[in-house]
Amino acid sequence: MILDNTVAAVVTGGASGLGAATARALAAKGVKVAIFDLQEEKGKAVAADIGGVFCECNVTDDASVDAAFAKAREAHGQERILVNCAGTGNAIKTASRSKEDGSIKHFPLDAFNWIIQINLVGTFRCIAKSAAGMLTLEPQEGGGRGAIVNTASVAAEDGQMGQAAYSASKGGVVGMTLPIARDLASEGIRCNTILPGIFDTPLLAGAPQNVRDALAATVLNPKRLGNPVEYANLAMCMIENDYFNGEDVRLDGGIRMAPR
């Protein structure tokens, strides 16, 4: 894909972390970037810094997503790029016994569904609506109309204890990548997914240094947390390289997650 100031992009979860790094990388190429997020202050700050637009967006809500796409397209025109970084997680065992009184409880289904709705359904909601818009675009030279990059996790393949919901949601993102790429192939729209390992994002910013060091030590090489810029570099490769399609790629320093 040719990237310049005629191209528009949407980055969900673009107010911080992996999304913000990708938004900055796209803007550096001249791309007009819309940041979809619920973090208004941070989102507006990133948007102002890169000459983009902030669109408040809850990926679990149809009306919110529709309004965000409408605002982004009014500002920049139809997006040719969608990067899905919005997501969250929790840590709850499938069933467990209390150490205090021996009582037994199971994973609350509303908590399970909440993760699925954000990470999996929310991702697909944005893909379907964005792809429908991309179909209205004229192809670039070579026949490409658009590129979609999703964010899964290494937990899709080796989830830890307490990650049943998170792993299921991210495994779903991996599982739908190829079918979506096949659905959209004849229209010149590509779809790929990144499976990040342990990255230095706001989620870990408040962790004690000994916890951060312990996490870094589990990485095969290099023994450190991933830099969001490294995620952005792979996302940019998936976007710019027209032969990159239908792939799920781990970006994790060779880590294989332990059971806990």
Automatic annotation (TrEMBL):
Belongs to the short-chain dehydrogenases/reductases (SDR) family. The keyword Plastid does not apply. InterPro entries: NAD(P)-bd_dom_sf, Sc_DH/Rdtase_CS, SDR_fam. The keyword Oxidoreductase applies. GO terms for molecular function: oxidoreductase activity. Keywords: Oxidoreductase. Coiled coil: none annotated. This is NAD(P)-dependent dehydrogenase (Short-subunit alcohol dehydrogenase family).
